[in-house]
Amino acid sequence: MTGRDPTHDVLIVLFDGVQSLDVTGPLEVFTAAVQAAAATPRAPASEAARPAPYRVRTASPGGRPVRTSAGLRIVPDTGLETAATPGTLLVPGGQGTHRPEPEVVARVAALAPGARRVVSVCTGAFLLAEAGLLDGRRATTHWAYCATLARRFPATEVDPEPIFVRDGKYATSAGVTAGIDLALALVEEDLGRDAALAVARGLVVFLRRPGGQAQFSAQLAAQIAEREPLRDVQRWITEHPEADLSVDALAARAALSPRQFARAFRAEVGVTPGQYVDRARLEAARRLLEDTAFGVAEIARAAGYGTPEAMRRAFLRSLAVPPAEYRRRFHTVRS
Prior knowledge:
alpha/beta, 11 strands
């Protein structure tokens, strides 16, 4: 936020079939930031009162009430066609993005160039892509729709893993609650970490999950195997990341030859045993860094990496940050 424009306008686009939480999640974050700012002790009375950090408005075609995908009726503040260019243009997702209203797409395309930030939540990325705003850009959406987004808009680089993606002034987020994570990140960018932390505490959510954090756990990211022996192996990997998780050892648990096991695991789970093990170990290490005060060397052993250097290489490869920096950002336990 600049000194010339201390109040930041946020415009949330509404349409029939919008996902209600995609709207209310970010709206609550920005509104809580306003309330937190108002509750902050004032400077001496001689100083002018600080303006609210955000002014949030909703807009729909014609200013008409919209019906969300859950049946909730929302009355907007204004008509989309008359709404002024905002600082942040926020486009939620929902069933209404499957066949978007042409006037909504056209107005988003018209407002985006002048906005400082353009943000989508969940399948709102489809509206941005339909408006031509994601061509040549990296983006994400709900994991279940990433393949469809990539197929329909081949000029967009779709990454199915992160909770949210920033590409210049454009930001796209994964499903539903990821919009809250992204909104918190924007508040932190605008107002600082203390303000974002106050909002997160008020809403009883984590301050910020990393944008690069996977949308789902190692088990949810893969398919569940059909056969019980392979499902047992999946559970074993998740519960014992420090164990010998070589193909030979896992094949023995499943009572299959290594070759049979590797072939069956890939066919039923959708990834190789090695890929599944890598995801499970990274997930275990992340949780220990976030939720415990254990040392890095201890966590490396507990997560199956053996050495801190091996764990560091895995973090850099997958998350682009070393373990120490990951802990600095996302540690939730005070030592």
